[in-house]
């Protein structure tokens, strides 16, 4: 129960932060990625803040015996760069640059019920489903 409450509160704080920072506005994100036009560097400060918070808590977790609200830490199993990681990063970057959304802001923005946002959100969910089907098919082979 505690883990669910903590996850909900963390998600709510994250969603509010995305809204305040402008990450839910595709035009702001595209402006950040447009180095040759009207570049808007403000999202760099948002990213630096997020990296700083993550760095602090990740370092703290490394020296802790266990998390406060769970039995154990869920550390990544893979530690090497492989082809699926590189292809996924490229697809993520291209999608982010073209649409101005990444998954977190897209979920938050879906609450607006704007047709373009819902189209992106639907395509994102569909692609996750297709990816999962491909992974399952590969594991059966």
Relative helix content? over 70%
The tally of structural domains comes to 1
Distinct helical segment count: 6
State the major sheet: none
Q: Can you count the beta strands? A: 0
The arrangement of helices and strands along the chain is HHHHHH
Runs in which pLDDT lies below 50 for 5 or more consecutive residues are: none
Mean pLDDT: 88
How much of the sequence lies in strands comes to under 5%
- The 3D shape can be described as globular
Rounded Rg: 18 Å
Judged by helices, strands and strand pairing, the structural class is mainly alpha
Distance between the ends: 38 Å
Description:
The protein is an all-alpha fold and 141 residues long. The chain has one domain. Helix content is 72%, strand content 0%. The chain contains 6 helices and no strands. Helix 2 packs across helix 4 and helix 5 crosses helix 6. The longest helix is centred in the last third of the chain and has 26 residues. The chain is globular. The model has no long low-confidence stretch (mean pLDDT 88).
């Amino acid at each position: 129960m505690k883990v669910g409450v903590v996850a909900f509160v963390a998600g709510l704080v994250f969603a509010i932060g995305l809204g305040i920072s402008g990450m839910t506005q595709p035009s702001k994100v595209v402006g950040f990625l447009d180095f040759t036009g009207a570049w808007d560097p403000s999202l760099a400060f948002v990213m630096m803040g997020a990296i700083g918070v993550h760095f602090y808590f990740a370092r703290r977790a490394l020296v802790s015996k266990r998390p406060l609200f769970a039995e154990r830490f869920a550390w990544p199993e893979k530690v090497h760069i492989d082809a699926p990681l590189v292809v996924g990063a490229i697809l993520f970057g291209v999608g982010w640059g073209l649409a101005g959304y990444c998954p977190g802001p897209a979920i938050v923005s879906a609450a607006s019920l704007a047709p373009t946002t819902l189209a992106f959100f639907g395509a994102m969910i569909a692609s996750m489903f297709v990816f999962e089907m491909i992974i399952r098919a590969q594991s059966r082979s």
